């Protein structure tokens, strides 16, 4: 695992990184770049930057295939807080992606178990994910894999932890009763199967989760720690998110950062 502590916004940094990865892959119709995508507050800035890059003609998504991490179960179609709505409003409506290449689990599918199975199969059929982007919950969840999720699970129906529903109630008029208690999520194993993972962590609220992620022992109590076993994980964090790290940890990763200075300079 590599931790990058950025002085720029994590979203800005992540957008520069994503752009570099897509351009480097030079995807084609026959060999698209497969990108795993998160929702929530943290990635919003990244999406704004990606849209700007596209508008300026610097980045095309014509040969990008996307898989979103998760979706609530049971929100009416078109609900403003569904992750489908979020993704189209914040990214897909503003870029040149082929809508047929956009994949978001359908939380209203008549057969949710089958939906999960098909989602897993579809990712594999597209050759797996090249770069999975994600955030982390205050409780250490990754996608909607809440504490005590099996690291071996794939796409499935999950019950949301109360702390997640409380955190997300800010998007639902601060009314927890409006926050769905179930969701579909890709499993930790699917993140492990991605060729590369980039996790965005911002703010004091995530400091404990980041500490467990970087310094903690691998534990299903903190699902993010499973990524310690992934050979190619990058975590980009701001200074506030690092406030629970030991000085020794912070200094070590700061010393390694030269290899990402070109991204820091662009952000
Ligand atoms: P947030 O959510 O970016 O809204 O904090 C992250 C997450 O819960 O994974």
Q: Please, could you describe this protein's structure?
A:
Strand 9 (197-201), helix 7 and strand 10 form a beta-alpha-beta unit. The strands form 2 sheets. Strands 1-10-9-6-2-3-5 form a 7-stranded parallel sheet, sandwiched between helices. A 3-stranded antiparallel sheet has the order 4-8-7. By secondary structure, it is an alpha/beta fold. It contains 9 helices and 10 strands. It is globular. The structure holds 2-phosphoglycolic acid.
Taking the alpha carbons of the first and last residues, their distance comes to 22 Å
Low-confidence stretches: none
Helix amount, in percent? 25-40%
The biggest beta sheet is recorded as:
7 strands, parallel
Strand content: 15-25%
Strand order of the biggest β-sheet:
1-10-9-6-2-3-5
Shape: globular
Order of helices and strands: EHEHEEHEHEEHEHEHEHH
Count of DSSP H/I helices:
9
Bound molecules: 2-phosphoglycolic acid
Give me the count of strands: 10
The gyration radius over C-alpha positions equals: 17 Å
Content-based structural category: alpha/beta
* Residue-averaged pLDDT: 97
């Amino acid at each position: 695992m590599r931790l990058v502590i950025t002085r720029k916004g994590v979203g800005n940094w992540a957008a520069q990184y994503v752009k570099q990865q897509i351009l480097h892959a030079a995807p084609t119709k026959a060999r698209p770049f497969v990108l795993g995508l998160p929702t929530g507050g943290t990635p919003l800035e990244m999406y704004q930057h990606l849209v700007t890059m596209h508008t300026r003609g610097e980045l095309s998504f014509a040969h990008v295939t996307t898989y979103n991490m998760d979706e609530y179960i049971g929100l009416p179609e078109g609900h403003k807080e569904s992750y489908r709505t979020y993704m189209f409003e914040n990214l897909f409506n503003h870029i040149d992606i082929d809508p047929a290449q956009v994949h978001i689990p359908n939380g209203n599918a008549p057969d949710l178990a089958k939906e999960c199975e098909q989602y897993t199969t579809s990712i594999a059929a597209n050759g797996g994910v090249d770069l999975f982007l994600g955030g982390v919950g205050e409780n250490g969840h990754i996608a909607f894999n809440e504490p005590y999720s099996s690291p071996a699970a794939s796409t499935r129906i999950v019950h949301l932890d109360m702390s997640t529903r409380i955190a997300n109630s800010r998007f639902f008029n601060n009314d927890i009763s409006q926050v769905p208690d179930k969701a579909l999520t890709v499993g930790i194993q699917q993140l492990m199967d991605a060729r590369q993972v980039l996790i965005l962590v911002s703010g004091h609220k995530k400091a404990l989760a980041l500490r467990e992620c970087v310094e903690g022992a691998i534990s299903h109590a903190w699902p993010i720690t499973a990524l310690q076993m992934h050979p190619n994980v990058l975590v980009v964090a701001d200074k506030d998110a690092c406030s629970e790290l030991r000085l020794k940890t912070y200094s070590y990763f700061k010393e390694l950062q030269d290899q990402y200075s070109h991204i820091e300079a662009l952000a």
